Predict the structure of 1-phosphatidylinositol 4,5-bisphosphate phosphodiesterase.
Amino acid sequence: MNKKRYFLEPPEVKDYLVKGDRFTKWSEDSTKTVPVTMKMDPKGFYVYWINQSKETTFLDVATIRDTRIGKHAKLPKHPKVRNVFNLDFPDSNHLAKTLTIVSGMDTVNLTYYNFFASKEKVTQNWANDILAIAYNAARNNACRQVFLDKIIYKMFPADKKRVESALASAHLPKGKHDTMKPDVFTEAAFKAFLTHLCPRPEIYEIFTSYSTKPTMTKENFTKFLNEKQRDSRLNEELFPRLRQDQIKALIDKYEPCSNNTNRGLISPEGLLFYLMGSETSVVVQDRLAKCQEMTQPIPHYFIKSSHNTYLTAGQFSGVSSPEMYRQCLLSGCRCLELDCWKGKPPDEEPIITHGFTMTTEILFKDVIEAIAESAFKTSQYPVILSFENHVDSVKQQEKMANYCKTIFGDALLTEPLDKYPLKPGQQIPSPSELMGKILIKNKKGSHEKPAQTKKTTSAVTNKGDAAVEENEEQEDAEEQDEEKMKTSDEGTAGQEVTAYEAMSSLVNYIQPSKFISFDNARKKNKSYVISSFVETKGEAMISKTAVEFVEYNKRQMSRIYPKGTRMDSSNYSPQPFWNAGCQMVALNYQTMDFPMQLNMALFEFNGRTGYLLKHDVLRRSDKKFDPFCDRIDTVVASTLTIKIYSGQFLSDKSVKTGVEVEVIGLPGDPKKKYRTKWSSTPNAINPVWNEEPFVFEKILLPEMASLRIVVHEENGKFLAHRIIPLDAIQSGFHHICLRSESNLPLTLPALFVYIEVKDYIPAAFADFTDALFNPTKGTEKTTKTPKESSADYISPYELPLAAETPTDKAKESEASVVEKAASEPTPPVDATDQSSQSAPETTAAAAAEDPAPDAGTSDPLPEVTPSPEEEAAPEKEASPEAASEKEAPSEPEAAPETKDEPVNDSSTDPEPASDDKAGTEEASGEPAAAAAAAAVVVPCPASALPESAGLNDSSELPPSTVTTEELTQHKNYLKVIKRQEKEMKETEKKYQKKGEDLIQKCSDSFKAMMKKTSLKKKEGGGGTSDSSVKTEQVKEQKEKMQVELQALWTEQNDQLKKKKEQFATERLAKLLELATERHTSEVKTLERCDHTYNTFGTYHSPQQEALKKKQAATLEEIKTLTNQLNQEALKEHEQKLRSLPAEVRDAVNVCVGAHFPELVDQAGDKKVEGGSFYGDVFLG
């Protein structure tokens, strides 16, 4: 684990900002100028200015997107305003006094606040410091208390009656024209007001679960912090628990009552303030800082990318603006798109627009200037300009190249670095080595002709350079007509021209090339070559060749962009492409939909650099990764549990609200969306849900998954949301401060939740893990009832999602065991009788006199009791295996005769052929680790009792051990079987319902066809041609029904087989656990007997050896039983698949025969033996 810590610095509000400076404010739509004094509050929440009439205007710093000075700031155009500032005088030096503050809730709807400073060199400091505070990561991810502090400076709208009542309760003025002095509305008064406005009953519920008194002791508070606020996965050596002095410091910091503080107590109010403090941030603050290694090759990173960056609205008739390039760069975007087209005479200035649409045009030069000004304001890492170049003019391409060189200057990378030549097999530089650089992505030409021409008959020969080779591969692309370009998925992408010499000389590490195949790319091995894929093609490649796509993205880069038919500028989900390792997943930044929200939320981490290091499995060349897998060897899956307790200030309206929770990650991650019920009353100030926790089990790759929480009104209207990467979430109680649609932090809206992230444990090993993590669980309370034992625990969240049917042969064989255990409970036997019984019997008296000192409270296994036949023949002394079989083996090591099939290789491995289990090969070893924690008392063998010491043959009696039959009768094992039976019945009903619905649907179709045919006959119409057409329709519907039934029943068979294998594994794990517990106890009992009877010289060590052999034989029986269950499941599956076509044909014939008996397949009357299960289920 990386022990290096990264810390976020809070925003620094300098003294001159608080004191203020004099400015003159002007606006573009007015000729008035207003002298103002501009200031910032001491905590940096608001910039505000006061005019001469003492009127104050507030601007929320969180909404500030940019500050501009000098030539980049806006300048007035009206002569009157220009005259006020002496702009037209040559020596006015007005550029040193200009300041523009850009604010907006998203990247499109912006407001510009324009100022002129009264002194020179003032604006530079104001612009830099305001921007630093606006983009401070600690401020945007602050704790709940910081956002509540913000309200003191600017009150919020809320329910009028509730506000007035809360003001009165806090002893504050509430009248319409009442005013409050700053010294009256203190922080303490505000907290009192807030407590009355938004009571928190759920906090008291949590408090009372740890303390029944009005205050909580330091010990109980420590217990609360360790149990609820600490990640259970943390290593205590690297991340030690809180010390007592740290606990005391928390109480001193948050407990409002000094008397409680002095006594080391904390009240419910103090607990609430702690839960709103900086220590309970839901996000790991380290992850927000620049914490990732930035020295890997660029293809090893996800890069924040924009599509058609210039557009502010739709793709067909939207407005283009250079401002969008500034906003994207300020938000951390590192890859921008420029659609370049030839300018018109007389200026012939290259333009940027969306070709063959009605979008407006902007000058290429203006865009380059905007990029140069904003490229490295919020991130110093390289910017990639993706040119879609349609300028087929040498002169205008030269203009474009000249603008790039002169405006970008040294920031433009024109030559490869000496350390990284453009050679096959050579990786390209890292982001840190290209800091402050701008890279051009443009088709590189051969400098002989434009590439957008038909393929000529003469091939270029003897051309060794890479540019010519790439040019040849792309010359076969045919031109599309204008309408096809507008309506196709690719749009105008791929139709651009190759650069002439001027532009081509600027291209180096990002050379676009038409994708041929993965084999072709692998052979060429050029990491500087990049291919672009429209989203539909990318999806097809992932679905068919995901592993090859991942390998491709380890070596070189790919860019994904939206299909051209998204005229509304909507976005596709970027997650599937990130799962495949695609670096540049370009989105429409003007549309703040869910994909864009996910993109913004993830790239907020790693210091907002615009680069995120891909997971190890997406970078390693020695390992292949399949995004569709259900298990990753080198990664421990996670389980996330979240409980939504309450919300605060979710809306300024009186409405019902609800919360939706989901996990976004790999295809194999949980797909279910959980939703709370709507709040019981129209109350958005403090709704309480407090429902059952939502559990997302087995998140395969936590580093690639995110948690999304959305709050809606009852009518479905979006209110707020939050998206957090799973590996950045801290476990515990948290107030999650919510975000707007454009991912801006909202001041008031928040959710109070409990989140727990832990390692995923398969259901079969839940008991083992419970025993390992809590070995003293069984000894804490001796009065604990059997139902509370760890052996009984089965997590309701770890049960399989699907089940098998009761027709499983193995299940039928064990069902008889269940019935036997239920109908014929084992009768108790007196201790006096047991003392005279043979070796397999155990004595309760011995157990009472000498119990095992470490015996747990788990349920004891059923004691071995003799059957009536055995009582009638006490002279028959045999092992428990002999008692359970008709013929006893002569040696304990011999295989039982009831096992017909030999033990093959798979029987020695406790893991059957199950796709769902990860790590079940440890099943045979793990019970041993848990045995000491849940041992069961087994008295000494009867053969070793003192009363038997006089018998000559007593020492020769082999020691007894638990049999497989006894283990299968244990109530914990029966509980697993009953649970599996219940699940199988539910699955059977589910598939039966699906089959009935399908058959009913098809029957209705045939019925409708029959009705139409009858009507035509009555009307006298319908000739031979109509009859043949109708017959063809019936046959077509019939074939469709056959295909759907075949698919449904095949799916059922596959699911049942899979679950039978899973259930067999669960049974194996449970039997091994019970056997290990019993075997451990037997060994301890024998050792205790050895200590007792060595005095008489009647105990010999061969008994211990015999016991071990018999125990090993029992374990082999258990494994053999599991192997038989798997083989029977496989055999049954194959038999059903063979009989499936006949069953489908029978079902279709029944359905068709009711309406069109002449079209029934005669072959359907032939039954396939043993294959009538589905027909019986669905057809009755």
About this structure: Residues 603 and 633 are 27 Å apart (CA to CA). The chain has a mean pLDDT of 76.
